[in-house]
Design a protein that fits this description.
By secondary structure, the chain is α+β, with helices and mostly antiparallel strands. The chain folds into two domains: about 10-170, Class II aldolase/adducin N-terminal domain (L-fuculose-1-phosphate Aldolase); about 175-295, Class II aldolase/adducin N-terminal domain (L-fuculose-1-phosphate Aldolase, 3-Layer(aba) Sandwich). It has eleven helices and eleven strands. Helix 5 runs parallel beside helix 9. The structure holds zinc ion. Zinc ion (ZN) binds near residues 62, 171, 173, 243 and 244.
């Protein structure tokens, strides 16, 4: 962990930023976060990265994390270097908001021990197209994750549809879910969802509408970004075929991590069952129906 020393120029840039974000916008913001609130968010992001590594979902530099905070955040004490930054996509609805994000090429498992080397914060400017990248002196990346376009567009869409003080996204590459998405039959939302909800009672409770599946699209592409925005309107977790998953939550990183764990565990059962020649039937439609009525989940096409 590097020593964090506020620099004079950061406060200058910070004051320019202050003047550019209109006072109206600041008044609309739901909160002001001080350095200790920021520490909590950084710890939570770092823990999520560690957990993704622990379950084998972020080998090497795979995976990325972000949280969009509808808040004025006191960044200078922790991330004192502030540079102008051109956003990869226009997100005017996020003007004034702060996005904490993992750095391009960084390992998620290392964020916990060295957060300031591996993450930064982007403050979205008033036009939604330019902003400022805040980092620490020991920062080891040049720009945010290469999937930042998808992160920003999904944050914007979700914040517009259901305004929230925070919105979290995790992209990870859990092995069993990703393996299933290499099989053509599983590249279908209804089929994959039906196969997975049968392994544990928790699965239908956590994914009452199922898990969305997208076809393979180039990582970091506009097509993947656009498809993710649409699919995450319906599903809290989506599979990027032959690549990995993206999970969203307005309840924090712990919830997004839980979603990935539940889905990946169900996928592990499914892979076991495939390997063993489909010897288990899993929860029957009738048993799933009983779970659904006990937890207030509508009867539906998944069972
Ligand atoms: Zn990836």
């Amino acid at each position: 962990m590097c020593e964090v020393i506020p620099l004079l120029d950061s406060s200058l840039v910070g004051s320019i930023l202050e003047s550019k974000i209109s006072s109206d916008r600041k008044n609309q913001m739901s909160q002001t976060l001080n350095r200790f609130d920021l520490d909590d968010w950084i710890a939570s992001l770092a823990e999520a990265g560690w957990r993704m590594a622990e379950i084998g979902a972020s080998e090497g530099a795979a995976g990325n994390l972000s949280v969009c905070l509808d808040a004025h955040v006191e960044l200078a004490p922790r991330l004192p270097i502030c540079k102008p930054y051109n956003l990869p996509v226009a997100v005017p609805a996020l003007a004034g908001m702060t996005v904490l994000v993992s750095g391009s090429g960084r390992r998620l498992r290392e964020v916990k021990q060295a957060p300031y080397e591996n993450l930064g914060a982007v403050v979205i400017g008033p036009d939604g197209l330019n902003g400022w990248l805040h980092t620490a002196a020991c920062c080891r990346f040049v720009r945010p994750t290469s999937e930042f376009n998808s992160h920003l567009m999904v944050h914007q869409d979700q914040m517009k549809r259901s305004p929230s003080s925070s919105h979290v996204l995790i992209h990870a590459q859990p092995v069993n879910l990703t393996y299933l998405s290499h099989l053509e039959v599983y590249q279908d939302t209804t089929y994959l969802s039906r196969q997975l909800v049968r392994w544990q009672p928790e699965t239908i409770i956590n994914f009452p509408r199922g898990i969305g599946v997208l076809p393979f699209q180039m990582p970091g592409s506009e097509a993947l970004m656009a498809a993710s925005v649409m699919a995450l309107r319906d599903y809290a977790l989506i599979v990027w075929s032959k690549h990995g998953v993206m999970a969203r939550s307005a309840s924090g990183f712990e919830h997004a991590v839980d979603l990935i764990e539940y889905a990946e565990t169900a996928a592990r059962y499914e892979v076991y069952n495939l390997v063993l020649g489909n010897r288990a039937t899993g929860l029957t439609p009738d048993e799933l129906g009983q779970i659904a009525s006990a937890f207030g989940i509508p009867q539906q096409h998944l069972f």
